[in-house]
């Protein structure tokens, strides 16, 4: 059955096809772009959930996900009157972070709050990753400290991103402080990925300068 027949005979059937195609993924941008234009032509327009599934699948296209296209599509939907939800706001923030525009991602956080969606660990982890990728690790550390003090508990993915950023930047002492804090205060323990990241970073560093890890214990996280 061709797409044209699906569209003309039963829009709901076409939407079902879109959902399945999003699960399978796309190898290029051409098909999802065509799908987007078809979806926006429907009256009544499909709900935001369908578009979220399409955008999430587009962000997974390799090797070059069409992030600018997703941003433009998100903005187009909002301008046309389709209210974003917390998931679509998160997709938009993730696109900006991956594009190196973490400043725009923080404005999306403000939009999320105005829409009535409180920050959660997903959006915070997205922003932390954006700061780390943009070589703003000190801002990421401050953000993590702040959200924990406000009562938002990071998850293992959040901690994993922080350990990766700290170790990549050679801040092994900071990574050790974060590890001790996580072991004592977090409701879960570090996993093998976190320990492996830390060990891979520590082994050559300890061999070359063992005294570098005898730092100030008072500089712990979440103090």
UniProtKB/TrEMBL annotation:
<comment type="similarity">
    <text>Belongs to the PPR family. P subfamily.</text>
</comment>
<dbReference type="InterPro" id="IPR002885">
    <property type="entry name" value="PPR_rpt"/>
</dbReference>
<protein>
    <recommendedName>
        <fullName>Pentatricopeptide repeat-containing protein</fullName>
    </recommendedName>
</protein>
<feature type="repeat" description="PPR">
    <location>
        <begin position="120"/>
        <end position="154"/>
    </location>
</feature>
<dbReference type="Pfam" id="PF13041">
    <property type="entry name" value="PPR_2"/>
</dbReference>
<keyword id="KW-0677">Repeat</keyword>
<dbReference type="InterPro" id="IPR011990">
    <property type="entry name" value="TPR-like_helical_dom_sf"/>
</dbReference>
<dbReference type="Pfam" id="PF01535">
    <property type="entry name" value="PPR"/>
</dbReference>
<feature type="repeat" description="PPR">
    <location>
        <begin position="85"/>
        <end position="119"/>
    </location>
</feature>
<feature type="repeat" description="PPR">
    <location>
        <begin position="155"/>
        <end position="185"/>
    </location>
</feature>
């Amino acid at each position: 059955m061709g797409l044209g027949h699906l569209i003309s005979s039963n829009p709901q059937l076409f939407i079902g096809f879109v959902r399945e195609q999003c699960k399978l993924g796309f190898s290029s941008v051409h098909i999802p772009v065509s799908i987007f234009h078809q979806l926006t032509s429907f009256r009544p327009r499909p709900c935001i959930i369908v578009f979220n599934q399409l955008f999430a699948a587009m962000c997974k296209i390799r090797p070059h996900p069409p992030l600018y296209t997703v941003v433009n599509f998100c903005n187009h939907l909002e301008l046309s009157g389709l209210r974003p939800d917390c998931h679509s706001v998160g997709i938009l923030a993730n696109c900006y972070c991956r594009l190196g525009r973490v400043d725009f991602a923080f404005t999306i956080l403000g939009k999320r709050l105005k829409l009535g969606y409180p920050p959660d660990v997903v959006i915070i982890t997205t922003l932390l990753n954006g700061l780390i990728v943009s070589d703003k690790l000190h801002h990421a550390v401050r953000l993590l400290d702040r959200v924990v003090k406000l009562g938002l508990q990071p998850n293992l993915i959040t901690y994993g991103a922080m350990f990766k950023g700290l170790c990549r930047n050679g801040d092994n002492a900071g990574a050790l402080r974060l590890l001790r804090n996580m072991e004592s205060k977090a409701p879960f323990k570090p996993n093998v990925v976190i320990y492996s990241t830390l060990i891979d970073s520590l082994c050559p560093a300890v061999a070359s300068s063992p005294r570098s890890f005898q730092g100030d214990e008072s500089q712990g996280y979440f103090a």
